[in-house]
Amino acid sequence: MDRDDASRRAFLQAAAAGLGFALIRVVPVHATPAAMDGAIRKVVGSSTISKGRVTLELPPLSENGNTVPLTVSVESPMTQAEHVRAIHIFTELNPQPDVVSFRFGPRAGRARVSTRIRLANTQTVTAIGELSDGSFWSTSANVVVTLAACLEDA
Amino acid sequence: MANALVNVPPRARRGEIIEIKTLISHPMETGYRRSQLGATIPRDIIRLFVCTYNGTEVFRAELHPAIAANPFIVFSIVATESGTLAFQWTGDNGFSASESAAITVD
C-alpha cells in the first residue's frame, strides 16, 4: 500500500511538474490589441488620429475567415492640394496586425478600394486614412467569424 | 506561371473615374500554418502590387499574409489620356507577374 501511495504521489508530482512546464511553454499565437496599437503607431508616428471620414464596409458575420470581403473608402476631393495619400488596414487578433496598405495620388480619382482579407478570429478591424495635409482619420468595424483562418493544417 | 486577370474599360471620357478590377492566382501562404508533420510551412506571399498609367505610378498596395489567397483588388483611377495601364505583382521567392491593358480616352 505504502509503495503504491508513494508511486502515486510521485506520479502526481511529475504530472504537476509537466503541467507547469506545459503552461510555461504556451506562447501567444495571436497579436493583441496592444500589438495593433504598436503597428498603428509605426505608421502614424506621434500624430493624433481623429474618428471619421473613413468608411469601412465589412460583413457583420462571416462564415469563412479565409476570405472576408472588405471595402474601404475615404471622403476626399482627390485634387493635387487635397487628396488621400494612403489607407492602412489593421486587425486586433490575427498573428500579425498589419493587413494591407494602399497608396494613392490625385490620379486615383476616388479613394475607394475593395479586397478580400483573412481573419483569424471574431475581432475588430481598423482602417486608418492618411491625408495629404498630414492628418489621420480612422474607423473600426467588428466581424464575427465562424470558421477561423490561419489555424487549419495543410 | 501566375494567372492574372485585369478588367479595365476599353474606352472612357477624359476626366472620368474608372474602376479597375484585378485578380491573380497565388496561394498567399501565410507562414503560420503547419504541415501534417508539424513543420512550419514557409511564407510565400505577394508583397507588392503596383499600377502604372503610361509609366506614372497611380496606385500601389503593400500586402501582408492577412490578404486572402488569390489577391483580388478593386480600385479607381482618372482616365487622363489614351495609353497603357501596366500592372505588376512582386513577392516572396522571386515571384513576379505583370499584365497590361490598353485604354482609349476621348
Description:
The complex is a heterodimer of chains A (154) and B (106). Chain A is of the alpha+beta class and 154 residues long. Chain A has one domain (33-147): Immunoglobulin-like (Sandwich). Chain A is built from 2 helices and 9 strands. Chain A has helices spanning 2-25, 33-44; strands at 49-51, 54-57, 61-64, 68-74, 84-91, 98-104, 111-117, 123-131, 136-147. In chain A, the strands form 2 sheets. In chain A, strands 1, 3, 5, 6, 8 and 9 form a 6-stranded mixed β-sheet that branches. Chain A has a 3-stranded antiparallel β-sheet with strand order 2-4-7, with no helix packed on it. Mean pLDDT of chain A is 84; it is low at 22-27. In chain B, strand 7 and strand 8 form a beta hairpin. Chain B has a single domain (4-105), classed as Immunoglobulin-like (Sandwich). Chain B has strands at 4-7, 11-12, 17-24, 46-53, 56-63, 72-78, 83-91, 96-105. In chain B, the strands form 2 sheets. Chain B has a 5-stranded mixed β-sheet with strand order 2-8-7-4-5, with no helix packed on it. A 3-stranded antiparallel β-sheet of chain B has the order 1-3-6, with no helix packed on it. Helix content of chain B is 0%, strand content 53%. Chain B is an all-beta fold. Chain B contains no helices and 8 strands. The chains are: A alpha+beta (154), B mainly beta (106). Chains A and B meet through strand 6 and strand 7 of A and strand 5 and strand 6 of B. Strand 6 (98-104) of chain A pairs antiparallel with strand 5 of chain B, so a sheet runs across the interface.
